[in-house]
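Tutorial, part two.
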Amino acid sequence: MTPTPSNSRPASSDTPTDEQFRAIQAIDAWYADRDAPQIFWLAGEAGTGKTRTTVFALDHLRDRRGLEKVVVGAPTGKAAQVLRRKGLDEAGTLHSLLYAPRQDEDTGELYFARRSEGPFAEAELIVCDEGSMVGDDVANDLLRSGKRILVIADDYQLPPVSGQGMFTSGEPDFRLVEPHRTAKESPVIRLAHLLRRQELPRRFGSAGNAHVLPYNRNTEGLVTRTGTQAICGTHRVRTAFTKRIRTLHGHESAMPQAGERVMCRRNQKEEGLFNGMVGTLTRAADRARGKHAGLWSLGVQMEDEVRARGKLIVHPWMFEAHYGGETHPPRLDKDIQQFDWAWLITCHASQGSEFPSVTVIDDSAAFREHKWRWLYTAVTRSREELVLLLRNTDLGGPWRMPEFDDRLA
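Running the prediction step on this input gives:
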């Protein structure tokens, strides 16, 4: 049954708003037109219901156009988890949909190759979330499939890093602008919309679980809380706090320890590893031997993977850079991985992810003309609780230090 508009009422769990209905109609017209472009880009800022609109649109296409086989993918495991929580139960990482593990018959080594069968090969439509984060290699593999691609992307987030953005380099085909009811009630989303208009709150303080505070000696301890994901902008800040947090956990050397969160920092399609994937160490790092002498071996349980990776050979330079080591990337063979800690992550690295609690250290000044986009992107990584620590800003007004029971210092 075709969804009907709700005469400007807020969207319920099963009824699209007028704006969402127009988006569904636009997607339907695109899908039905065999001569239309391969890509349709649905845009919208945080809280406008992009994912919910996608759910409505897929239900409509199944009913009206006989759509049966659709795959839904996101660049990272965290982004795929967000999609599943919002109603796209079949969502997975793009690499798991596109590539399958293979074993070399001669060496026995594992590598990843593009799938020639399975859901992706049989799909009539591909839904690609966080489209601005998709690297050119993956984008080209998606395009080479010849299949229709519905791209979902917030066009006010930070511009992508080099080698990304193929799907979002032009103008959206449809932009959602109306925040849905639950978004209007969220202090985090209300703050995000202020930042979207390049405005700050009128004063420091708290509104529900959103706290906007000055960054100073009294508040910087909020960054080291165990239950929050800290986000910053510069590697100088990240290094300083990473060392501090590790010291509070009793780790003094650069050798990673069991239970620490780490992040992949190098795309290696053949290994199914992509920049931004996060995991937890299953054991302390070992020093590799033989031809890999001087490197480290890590056991990592990556998010959105069932089995832990038992022996990832990584170059230690990113870990050691926090402790005065070389800060310039070495030349690495293709079988050598590149990982770093994820106690703090940069705003660029956080794109596509969502966390229950986020603490943002305001490094926006370092991004000049993208200052407001940086703040907006960082703040919208929060799903429930937010602490925004503003630098060199005096909003005034009386405010209280929020009480948290997970502070380390």
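The radius of gyration is 22 Å. In part three we will examine how such features are distributed along the chain.
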